[in-house]
Design goal:
Fumarate Reductase Iron-sulfur Protein, Chain B, domain 2, 8 helices, globular, binds iron/sulfur cluster
Length: 141
């Protein structure tokens, strides 16, 4: 792909991201059903027990360039793209993509730290605990 094609692709993607962000902001009712359906919340100390509606608002804040709150940033960070949220959303927002785009935006603005190796390993272990037997966890983790 040449330089011109890359610029066009980048512009197309930027425009798509902006239009998706606007669609999500308009469609989301802040009901929190996505938060309730997320299997990662028990593994997110900063988000567990937080107000679901406020946490969703925090995610939308990060998505639009803000800092969000600690619960929202923590939820964004632990997302493993299970897509359970998408099934739960009554407004077809695609909250899995909402979290993904918020993570991307948060990495750009500095609201979210860049991923480091230690954090990646702890995420791998959390994900493994969801699917490994107790014997496998004892032997491998
Ligand atoms: S993304 Fe969907 S499920 Fe989540 S708060 Fe918004 S409307 Fe509710």
């Amino acid at each position: 792909m040449g330089t011109d094609q890359r610029m066009v692709a980048h512009q197309d993607w930027s425009a798509l991201r902006e239009s998706e962000t606007a669609r999500m902001l308009a469609a989301c009712s802040h009901c929190g059903a996505c938060f309730d359906a997320c299997p990662m919340i028990p593994y997110a100390p900063g988000a567990k027990g937080s107000d679901k509606s406020e946490t969703v608002r925090g995610v939308l804040d990060v998505l639009t360039g803000g800092q969000g709150d600690a619960a929202a940033r923590n939820w964004i960070a632990v997302c493993t793209r299970s897509a359970s949220c998408n099934e739960a959303c009554p407004e077809a927002v695609n909250p899995m993509l909402m979290l993904r785009l918020a993570k991307w935006r948060g990495n750009e603005t500095g609201a979210l730290p860049k991923r480091d190796a230690a954090e990646t390993m702890s995420r791998v272990k959390v994900f493994a605990r969801l699917s490994f037997t107790e014997d496998e966890q004892r032997d491998w983790l």
